[in-house]
Amino acid sequence: MHQPPVPHLAQADPEVARLVEAEAKRQYEKIRLIPSENYVSAAVLEATGTVLTNKYSEGYAGRRYYEGQQLIDPLETLAVERARAVFGVDHANVQPYSGSPANLAVYLAFCQPGETVMGMALPMGGHLTHGWNVSATGRWFRSVQYGVRKETGRIDMDEVRELALRERPKLIFCGGTAIPRTIDFAAFAEVAREVDAILVADIAHIAGLIAGGAHPSPVGHAQVISTTTHKTLRGPRGAMLMSDAEHAKALDKAVFPGLQGGPHNHTTAAIAVALGEAAQPAFRDYAHAVVANARALAEALLERGYDLVSGGTDNHLILVDLTNRGIGGKPAAQALDRAGIELNYNTVPYDPRKPFDPSGIRLGTPAITTRGLGVEQMPTIAGWIDRAIRATAEEDEASIERIATEVRELLDAYPMPGWA
């Protein structure tokens, strides 16, 4: 059953309770490889479901527009102080509702509509909010985009510099949503200084790895840092903005009153809990295990002849180009889900196929590492992936069902926060 239990929900709304229970069981029975997903602790779950959701708190600690903030102010202050300590930053704002609004606040703080901004192109591994044309950030600002080299799948910083010198952007985003390699924050900072741009490091995917010392930090290189609080950080669905002292006031004004009203205090509490967990020695072990598992899984896939973008991974994420397998990413992802292995289809750099039917799949190891799986299980998982993809090409649904059974048998030995 769901942990913590939901007896009041079950009594008041059995239909919703049934769906919650079913989702908890689904998460328990699947090898969850979507790199942006994880399992939060029972403590984070409990904090998210507290009476803090009842309270409005527009403004910041000590400067609210509603009374009754005697306990909310120290709670938010605690979350801010923990963020500053974990990441070593001058300033943190824990109020953004999610990653995209956090990034919008950065634009509002430092840009006027129509000014030039620069980010990684979405098909190359960037994020929608880094200026891609279907996003508000690509419609309200003049966006220029960099990519990766076709031969290597890696960012060419000489090309980034040439583009920045030619276009003179006001903001430069580094980071993204499908980048399997270490981000060279120092190199991006050098480019940003040369064109007098503000460097924004979007660390949403790798925040937990940075907190645990398994990836270099952008602190000291990027004036502004944006992140979600879930993914590798193992917190609730929320976001944070961090910065040096010089850019703090503009960011705070952009979040409130620029974009948002009252913060979600129950989420703030859960962020504080997650940051407290991230400060523990065990979290450092977790972050390094995530990377070790990803590298072991990547190596096992390479041994089976799979084409990995950039040839492997330095972090938690693997991007697989299935072109040499004669199958698209979407049918492969759907078949793998039926086989008990959850990941997502994804474009790959220079993908000739359409985004809704791309050539690749994207997978990562944060969630399975939380469950306690280690490098010794990665060849088994790679074998299941290979078997399922081959079975899909052969329309062998029975083999896919057998894999799902084997997955459930393996996961029985690995407890999941949120299900017992």
UniProtKB/TrEMBL annotation:
Q: Which InterPro entries match?
A: PyrdxlP-dep_Trfase, PyrdxlP-dep_Trfase_major, PyrdxlP-dep_Trfase_small, Ser_HO-MeTrfase, Ser_HO-MeTrfase-like, Ser_HO-MeTrfase_PLP_BS, SHMT-like_dom
UniProt keyword list: Amino-acid biosynthesis, Cytoplasm, Methyltransferase, One-carbon metabolism, Pyridoxal phosphate, Transferase
Site feature location: Plays an important role in substrate specificity:
H230
The UniProt GO MF terms for this protein read:
glycine hydroxymethyltransferase activity; methyltransferase activity; protein homodimerization activity; pyridoxal phosphate binding
Which residue intervals define the domain Serine hydroxymethyltransferase-like in the entry?
9-385
Pathway recorded for this protein: Amino-acid biosynthesis; glycine biosynthesis; glycine from L-serine: step 1/1; One-carbon metabolism; tetrahydrofolate interconversion
Tell me which CDD domains the record gives.
SHMT
Choose one Gene Ontology CC annotation of this protein and give it: cytosol
Catalysed reactions listed for this entry: (6R)-5,10-methylene-5,6,7,8-tetrahydrofolate + glycine + H2O = (6S)-5,6,7,8-tetrahydrofolate + L-serine
Query: Which family is it part of?
Result: Belongs to the SHMT family.
HAMAP family membership: SHMT
- Supply the name of the protein: Serine hydroxymethyltransferase
The upper taxonomy is: Bacteria, Bacillati, Actinomycetota, Actinomycetes, Pseudonocardiales
Which gene codes for it? glyA_1
